Amino acid sequence: MRRLVLCMLAILATALPAWTEQVKGSLLIAGGDFRLDNPGWPRLVDLAGGKGATILVLPTGSGDPVGSGGRIVEHLRGLGANAILLPLAEKGFDRPAADIVTDPVWIDRARHAGGFFLVGGDQSRYTAALLRADGTDTPLLAAIRTAHARGAVIAGSSAGAAIMSATMIKDAPETLDLLATGPIAGRTLGPGLGFIGPDWFVDQHFLARGRFARTLVAMDSAGYTRGLGVDENTAIIIRERKTAEVVGASGVVVIDTRTARRVPGWPFEQTGSVLSLLRDGDQMDLATGDVTPGSARADAPILPTSPGFEPDPELPATLATGDILAPWQFGRLMAQVLESRKGEATGLAFDAATPATRPAFRMLLTRNANSRGWAGDGITVLNLTIDITPVRMADPLFSPLRP
């Protein structure tokens, strides 16, 4: 199965543009639920060129393109941008998408725009509209790439974030099924638009929906070793594919599997993946992985290997959870592992209704000699290791305490 998925993605990749050109533009990748009071919005206007800059809003992924796109246009205009709704969607507009992507007027507007915003919804609608049947760029997408290479910002939330990598998750099954049997050929993974370049995989709603496990499977299946998991109401700003900065209320998980060991076959088994959790204001060099903490945390380092390290006394001696895929659970565990006495946490992922009939998974999150972080409004966590091992659960899981 994995070989088939890789072959399909390799064929699709041949239709993508070359990545050798220099890109002067920025990306603003939001993980969904990108609220209008998030400081990322004025940053988007600044990246597009400041007040008066033209930003084209693409509502293509939305089920209500006119309504959702219109609200974002209004908000960006309130911030001083010359925001314009680009009428590219399956419904809601008078002209079909095939006309818009070849329209010289819209192509010219895109080529000279300072920025683009891709509305959330269904990411497959973006690739269906902006890529030809053979996977090559439509004229409109080519114009967007030209503008980005010259300096324009491309932003997107939720589905607009999923399309940022060259391969995206299209329609993932339940995470336990994905861990048990792997991606479904032709359905789970598909071509994205690749604005971030060839080296990074992107997933969204990351902590709010417990998506770290599905991302690890997708990265392994598609051949990625670096990934970004962007949480809700949070964005990561990437400049010229070189540096990244986190903006917003939650965080971004950076995934590095370059030193991981993958046991062949399914169910999924992998050890040694390295994870970091970046918070608002944190910056990272994408080439070296070096992290500079945000000013709110820079003066409060957490150094577990230092002689003066004091574990959080309120944390239990043993960290464990029976549902590591639960909403927000993984982000909490990462912070707790960094500050705990033992520096490890065990989590389980299984089907409680029929625990013995489906593969279950034990996930061990551990601190190591390179783990460190900073405290403040949200804890930055660097270099934890995760091991995922298939296990068998008992059925029943429990028995009555009294007869």
From TrEMBL:
<comment type="similarity">
    <text>Belongs to the peptidase S51 family.</text>
</comment>
<keyword id="KW-0720">Serine protease</keyword>
<keyword id="KW-0378">Hydrolase</keyword>
<dbReference type="InterPro" id="IPR005320">
    <property type="entry name" value="Peptidase_S51"/>
</dbReference>
<dbReference type="GO" id="GO:0008236">
    <property type="term" value="F:serine-type peptidase activity"/>
</dbReference>
<comment type="function">
    <text>Exopeptidase that catalyzes the hydrolytic cleavage of multi-L-arginyl-poly-L-aspartic acid (cyanophycin; a water-insoluble reserve polymer) into aspartate-arginine dipeptides.</text>
</comment>
<dbReference type="InterPro" id="IPR011811">
    <property type="entry name" value="Peptidase_S51_cyanophycinase"/>
</dbReference>
<dbReference type="InterPro" id="IPR029062">
    <property type="entry name" value="Class_I_gatase-like"/>
</dbReference>
<protein>
    <recommendedName>
        <fullName>Cyanophycinase</fullName>
        <ecNumber>3.4.15.6</ecNumber>
    </recommendedName>
</protein>
<dbReference type="GO" id="GO:0008241">
    <property type="term" value="F:peptidyl-dipeptidase activity"/>
</dbReference>
<keyword id="KW-0645">Protease</keyword>
<dbReference type="GO" id="GO:0006508">
    <property type="term" value="P:proteolysis"/>
</dbReference>
<dbReference type="Pfam" id="PF03575">
    <property type="entry name" value="Peptidase_S51"/>
</dbReference>
